[in-house]
Amino acid sequence: MKSLKAYSARGYNRSFIRLTGVLLCLLFSMTVIGGLAEAKKKTKKPPPPPPSDLPGHVNYLARQLYGLHLDESGQITAEIQKLVLDALERWAADRTPTDVEMRRQFEADFALLHYPLMGQPAVDNHPWKGGVITLAGYTLGWSDFDRVNTVAVFDSREGKTRLVTVTNFVPRTDLHYEFIDPLAGVDDLRFFIWGYRLGKSQPRLTAILYSFDGQALKSLWETHDVFDGKMDVDKDKVVIRYLKEDEYVRETQQRRKPPRHEATYRLTPAGMEIVSDRDIPF
Q1: Predicted confidence band at 7 (pLDDT cuts at 50, 70, 90)?
Q2: Is the CB of residue 177 less than 8 Å from the CB of residue 135?
């Protein structure tokens, strides 16, 4: 019995020694691996600084938008907006640029972007109170659906141009403008900013009617995501033709033509008022 106990003790000691050795080896290996990882982290080179030229800097920032959700893009898109508009403001300060000249400035700023990155300018102007008001905007996109819109309002008078205000039109659309003929009793400048949103079988129209008093923009009327919406403006009348999505899906599934609708509005000093909303042939 005594020799059996001695044998068991010796076996236990050998097992304990082997286990201790294995644990020490594992600990040593983990220490070495951790040290190598830390050394690699310390020796990793910092990212290169952005290029000094404006198109290169814009491209450098825009490439960081790859894979970002729209809600996560605000800081980068705001940096791009500041770079582009600051440069445009300096360039335009001592001249009265045409809409074509401003568009070319934007095109140069976005020249290095490649699909899916895109910078699409939208520029238009209109005479107002002895000067020229220019809507200088662009759509910045990094996928077929992730895109933001910036519109800057410039006022040109006596060979000088100043940036008055900036707005960010609704995201995920493209960008268009429609100036309104002056209304009796209205002293401000009015225009629509509108665009189409993709992503369904038909594009969806969003439009906002703005008033500009020389200092600030004010929204007077708006509509969002009108299914297959098409807008026509004629003096004081606005017509929007559209489909109702649920009707369109139901009728096309039955291989029937869906009803089409036409809403007619009248432009008023307060904004817009509905005149009629009726069905029309498809």
Answers
A1: very low
A2: yes
Residue 13 half-sphere exposure toward CB, CA atoms < 13 A: 6
* CA 56 from centre of chain: 20
Nearest to 150 by CA among 127, 174, 129, 131: 174
Mean pLDDT in residue range 96-112:
98
Domain count, the chain: 2
Q: Alpha-carbon distance 102 to 122, whole Å?
A: 9
What's the mean pLDDT in 119-143? 97
122-153 burial: b if 16+ Cβ within 10 Å, else e? bbbbbeeeebbbbbbbbbbbbbeebbbbbbbb
- Residue 21: the pLDDT is 55
Together in a domain, 203 and 272 = yes
In a domain, 49, yes or no: no
DSSP letter assigned to residue 173: B
Global pTM value: 0.82
Buried b (16+ CB within 10 A) or exposed e, 235-263: eeebebbbbbbeebeebeeeeeebebbeb
